[in-house]
Here is the input.
Amino acid sequence: MKIDQATVRHIAKLARIKLTQDEAERLEGELSGILDWVEQLEEVDTEGVEPMTSVVAVTTKMRNDEVTDGGYPDAILENAPAREGNFFVVPKVVE
Amino acid sequence: MTDLTDLTISAAREGLRAKDFSAQELAQAHVSAIESANEALNAYVLPTPDLALEMASASDQRLAKGEGGPLEGVGLGIKDLFCTQGTVTTACSHILNGFTPPYESTVTANLWSAGAVMLGKLNCDEFAMGSSTETSHYGPCINPWRREGSNAPLVPGGSSGGSASAVAARLCLGATATDTGGSIRQPAALTGTVGLKPTYGRCSRWGIVAFASSLDQAGPMTRDVRDAAIMLTAMASHDAMDTTSVDRPVPDYEAALGTGIKGLKVGIPKEYRVEGMGEEIDALWQRGIDWLREQGAEIQEVSLPHTKYALPAYYIVAPAEASSNLARYDGVRYGLRVEGDDVISMYENTRAEGFGAEVKRRVLIGTYVLSAGYYDAYYLKAQKVRSLIKRDFDQAFEKVDVMLTPTTPSPAFALGEKSGDPVEMYLNDIFTVTVNMAGLPGISVPAGLSSEGTPLGLHLIGQAFDEETLLRAAHALEQAAGPMPAPADWWSTNP
Here is the structure.
C-alpha cells in the first residue's frame, strides 16, 4: 500500500498531531514500508476464523453499582497544566 | 564482607535476616553504585536515594522486630512505566513531562507491602515502543556489556533496557519491567539477565502507563531464575481495578524450583528455524536442547504454522491499541501543554512536541488501520490471524509441557545500528512476539556468550498460568548453562 502525502496529512489530522513538511515526507516512505510488510497477512486463509477478543477465556466480572471512589478534586487537578478552582482550563471552544 | 550489590535477592534476604548487614547498608551500597555509574549507563532516569534510605530504615525497624516481609529491605529499580505515588513518572516521554502520579500502580504497591525498597525510576523506550531504549526522551541507555576488544557502546535491548542494564551492572537487586512484544525477554537476553513475562492477566495492569492493553504484561528482571520466582510471587495478584487480572491464587513460585525435569516434554517449534538465523544462534539452541535432554527431558519437534505472521499481525494490533490509548495525551489534564490558536491546534501542537518519532509513527499507523474503510482489511484480519496463532499453541501444548527457542536472532547491537529502518528494528522481536499474541508466559535465561563476548539468551514458552513448570524448566536450563559472569566494570567513576 502506497501512502501518499494527502493520506499522511489526513491521518495526522485524525490523530491530532501537527507534522512539519520534513516529517510528513519522511513518514510517506516509512508508513508505506510498514504497510507493505504487514500486507503479507493476505496470504493467510482466515475464512470462518473468529477474530480474537481476549487471550484468556474470562467472563466479564460485575460489581455492585455503587460509588467506591472520588471526592478528591485536588489530587485529580494537581498535574493540570492550567486550572481555575476545581476546573481544567482549555482554550475557548464555543464562540 | 562480599560486595553487597553483587548479591542475588535470595542471598540478600538471608543476609538481612541473619543481620550480616542492614537494609540501610544495602541501600547505601546501591545508591553509591548508581551515583558512580549513571552518567555512563543512563540506566536510571530518576534515582531516588533519599526515598531508598528512608524505606530501608523502615525495613530495618521491621526486621529488628522479626516482622519483615518476603522482600524486606530488597532494593529494586522500577521501570518508568509504573506510576509511583509522589515520584515523577513519564514513560520516558516528553508529553508526560513532570507528571507526578497521585496514586501507586498495583504491582509496585504489592512490592512495597512485601518490604521492597525503591532505588529509582528506570529508563525505557518512549511509551515502551522500541527494542533498544534509543527512543527514550532522556537519551539512550547503554549496555554494560561491550564487544571483546571494542569500546563501542551497545544497546541493552528494549523497551525495558534501563531495567536490564541496571540489573546486569549491579545497580539494583532486581527490577520491574513490562513486555508487550518482547520488552522484558529481549533486553534480558542482550544483557545476560533473566527476564520473565507472565501469563496475560497474572499481574494487574492498573497504574502502568498503557501501550497495547491486550498485550501488555508486567514481570521481573533479575540475575537468576530463583529471584524471578521470588519477585513474581510478590508482584502477582488479583485486582478489582483491572478486570483482565485473573482471580486465581498466587502460588509460591520459588517452591516449584529444583524438583528436576525428568520426563518433562519439551517442544521445539520447527518454524522458528528462520531464514538467515546465524549459525551461532542455531548452535546455542542445539546446546539448550542437549542440556534439557541430559537432565531427563523428552524432546520433540512441534509445529506452529502461523509463526511468520505473528510480527506483522502485532504491528497492526499494537499500534491500533496504542493510537487509542495515547489519545488521552491532549495537554488538558496532565503533562505537557503547547498553546495554539484554538483547542484543536493546542492538541496538535502538544502532541507534535510531546511525542517522539517512533511514537508518532505507531500512532499514525494505528489511526490508519482503524480508519473508515480499512478496519476490516487490517485490524479484523490481524485479530483473526491472532486466533490462528493461539490455536497453533493450543494444539502444540496438547503434546508438550513447554517449548524451547532462542530469545533473539542476534546478540546486542551497536547504538544507531538499527535505527534507520523501522522494520529491521521490529524483527528483533521475531521469537518473542508470538507469546504476547497468545497471552502465554515466557522467560529468557542467559545461556553463554557470543563470539563477540556478549550474552545470548534461550527462551522457554509455557502454558497459560503454568509459570511453575516454566520456572522449573528455566532453573534446569540455568543449572546446565552455569553462572553468568558479571560484565567487567568500565562505567564506574569511582570503582
